[in-house]
Specification:
By secondary structure, the chain is α+β, with helices and mostly antiparallel strands. 31% of the residues lie in helices and 23% in strands. Strands 1, 2, 3, 4, 5, 6, 7, 8, 9, 10 and 13 form an eleven-stranded antiparallel sheet that branches. A two-stranded antiparallel ribbon has the order 11-12.
Length: 322
């Protein structure tokens, strides 16, 4: 198994949106659950956007139509969608299935969980010239995003965002904690969490990610083998990345983690308890602490629509997709 994984994919093709959907379907987990959404307004000059979803979870978007697009369709799959790909070799073979398909952007990521890669070590490697392009030259520009609260997570950007190669190095564990909205009282430096990615419980502070973003600009051509054999391309992003591929753990093939959905639900319930727990207890003391009263209060206090935020985490997929 490779050390790096695909965390974002964008390609274009002259095939139709239905042809693209059917072409990628066999390479996903839960292929029978994949469906296409209704017409939406397109973006960036495209006329129409269609979402590809598994249940209510967004997997990818397809934009097409418009006189200026000359028959092209743009396919975009974010990191959340990439988790649903079961067979990246099959995805790489799309170049022979779809009409005039070429990759416009692909992000490759390597994760470490043992504290061997840290914010400080990345900064030291940058000062040592380990992010220079092959052949030397000057260091690419570096930008740091830091906070006085270390549990907010820190990020380092290396290179120009518009260039053919751009690197993001960040404290993935704290990014995950922030994304699910974990209450502040749980955000401690020694926090240990099982992110349900096959690694078991890990210290949040030790979970680090390095991403290499490749774009088809400035004459760069992105081969489809980046999907089936990503490690050489990740290693080629910088000497630091080459060293990381040698020591990083192999990725574990498995169904998408349910951590986001479960943790977001638990965090939302805790926020609700903190904000409204006193009110609910008062109501029970006024009207009686019985099952019938609880059922009536629950019904009266429930909203008309489910939480959009929880839907986007895939909460309805938990334990539903085999």
């Amino acid at each position: 198994m490779p050390k790096s994984g695909i965390d974002y994919l964008k390609f274009r093709t002259q095939s139709t949106h239905f042809q693209v959907m059917e072409a990628i379907r066999p390479h996903l987990y839960a292929p029978d659950c994949l469906s296409i959404g209704p017409d939406l307004p397109g973006k960036d000059g495209w006329k129409i956007r269609r979402n590809l979803v598994i249940e209510d979870l967004l997997v990818a978007t397809m934009d097409y139509g418009g006189d200026s697009q000359r028959g092209w369709l743009r396919f975009e799959m974010t990191g959340k969608g990439c988790e649903w790909v079961r067979d990246w070799k099959g995805m790489a073979a799309l170049v022979g299935t779809l009409d005039s398909a070429d990759i416009r952007r692909v992000d490759l990521a390597v994760d470490t969980y043992d504290g061997s890669v840290t914010h400080e070590k990345v900064l030291a490697a940058y000062e040592a010239g380990s992010f220079k392009r092959e052949g030397g030259g000057r260091n690419p520009k570096l930008k740091k995003v830091e906070s006085s609260d270390v549990t907010d997570g820190r990020t380092i950007y290396i290179g120009a965002r518009t260039s053919s190669r751009f690197l993001r190095c960040y404290e993935k564990g704290w990014e995950q904690v922030a994304k699910v909205g974990l209450p502040e009282q749980f955000k401690k430096l020694g926090l240990v969490i099982d992110f349900e990615n096959g690694r078991g419980p890990v210290r949040v502070a030790d979970y680090y990610r390095v991403e290499a973003e490749f774009k088809a600009v400035d004459g760069a051509v992105l081969p489809w083998t980046m999907l089936s054999d990503p490690d050489p391309y990740f290693a080629g992003a910088a000497p630091f990345c080459a060293g990381l591929v040698e020591v990083a753990p192999k990725r574990i093939p498995m169904m998408p983690s349910e951590f986001d959905a479960k943790a977001s639900l638990a965090a939302s319930m805790e926020h609700c308890r903190t904000a409204y727990g006193g009110l609910l207890r008062s109501l029970l003391e006024i009207y009686g602490d019985t099952a019938d009263v609880k059922a009536r209060l629950f019904d009266e206090l429930s909203g008309d629509k489910p939480s959009e935020r929880l839907i986007k985490t895939g909460i309805y997929l938990v334990n539903h997709v085999e």
